[in-house]
Specification:
By secondary structure, the protein is α/β, with parallel strands linked by helices. The protein contains six helices and four strands; from the N terminus they run E-H-E-H-E-H-E-H-H-H. The two termini are 15 Å apart. This is Arsenate reductase ArsC.
């Protein structure tokens, strides 16, 4: 199994969604984790849009890299610019990939109602799904 870590700033939305998508789409091929530079807790809108897509992430937990049960990964994928800029050190053989996704809470901050806010999360969720669906091409 290929060990993958999705890393973002707070491990509340983007990295959690990426973890959920890869676990769902490729459970037999990847051992998947997510973490943040900080731990901000799971975002309820992220949980909701993933549930709407048929994926339950409510049992995942927001954690920092230091809290991970394992620290050796074949791939670390940063999903926001801040995490890419301050990414902690990993063993030399770890391969790094960066793909920045828009920040759902930042997008939703200008929403005038809950439906509009959720649509921001749904857009990012779909972007992450499309990224994860191409994981074999990305990890070459």
């Amino acid at each position: 199994m290929i060990r993958v870590l999705f890393l973002c700033t707070g491990n509340s939305c983007r990295s959690q969604m990426a973890e959920g998508w890869l676990r769902h789409l490729r459970p037999d091929d990847f051992e998947v984790y997510s973490a943040g530079i900080e731990a901000h807790g799971l975002n309820p809108y992220a949980i909701q849009v993933m549930a709407e897509a048929g994926i339950d992430i409510h049992q995942q937990r927001s954690q920092t890299v230091d809290q991970l049960p394992e620290s050796h990964f074949e791939y670390v994928i940063t999903v926001c610019d801040h995490a890419n800029d301050v990414c902690p050190a990993f063993p030399a053989k770890t391969k790094f990939i960066h793909h920045s996704f828009e920040d759902p809470p930042k997008l939703a901050a200008k929403a005038s109602n809950k439906e509009e806010a959720l649509s921001c999360y749904q857009k990012v969720c779909e972007d992450i799904k499309q990224f994860v669906q191409k994981i074999d091409l990305i990890l070459i």
